Amino acid sequence: MNNKSTKHTKVLILGSGPAGYTAAIYAARAMLKPIIVHGSQPGGQLTTTTDVENYPGYSKVIQGPWLMEEMKGQAEAVGTEMIQDHIKKVDLSKKPFSAEGDSGQIYTADSIIISTGAQARWLNLKSENNFRGFGVSACATCDGFFFKDKEVAVVGGGNAAVEEAMFLTKFASKVKLIHRRNELRAEKMLQEKLKSNKKIEIIWDSVVEEILGTNEPKSVNAIKIKNVKDNKIHELKIDGLFIAIGHDPATSLFRDQLKMDKEGYLVTKPDSTETNISGVFAAGDVKDKIFRQAVTAAGMGCMAALEAEKHLSNN
User: What is the rounded end-to-end Cα distance, in angstroms, of the chain?
Assistant: First the structure.
């Protein structure tokens, strides 16, 4: 090896967020002295979520960034070492596993917990960025409650979009589903359910051009939609917009080393967080495209740490 410095740990955790921090808390309490390597914005998707009302243990509304700070503090307090670095390559073919950071630091580990998460895909409009968290959301389960008796729109055409639209009818008075094609990709049974729901209207062959609203207080009141067939633009009055065009798991680092599904989510063994490589575990949104909640990510982080501990004591 050349002059790069090497740091060894029993448990290396890649990524922060509820999964990584919870894994660290459990691993540190098992005296495994874990190291978390996180990017420049630790805390994951929750740091962009302002009001959190569904994390158990808090009867009052809490803030996502605050919750992540608390988890991070708890992980450090019990003995986790936190390092900011960007991992550019990993080698899982031999033990100890190794990872190399942009800093030049080499990390070697007897076990690895991957909690690099996923990012919601956005439309990448300037106005969308402006109203994100103030009427524009990528999670109906998280934010649907705020749109009781209001009119909302969902963008997308896959299972996620249809499920979000159905879920929103519990709260909203009207839900418009906006899709850029003239047929949905969602499975047929879901489509039937959607079409029989009186509260949902589908707007075909259309894309969102701009989100309109007020800045004081910040809220959405309409969107501009373009019909892709005749290029006509019209305005639609709504109170909230949900983007459901998919998520991208942060797994490119592990391509050709770990088993993934066709969308790039890591595949783990049933009832386990263990990947196809013994000693490598995955927790949170990096492997979970179904629930995507802070509490399920935290639960998986706990599982991963307990499984890593068992793996280390058996080897």
Answer: 26
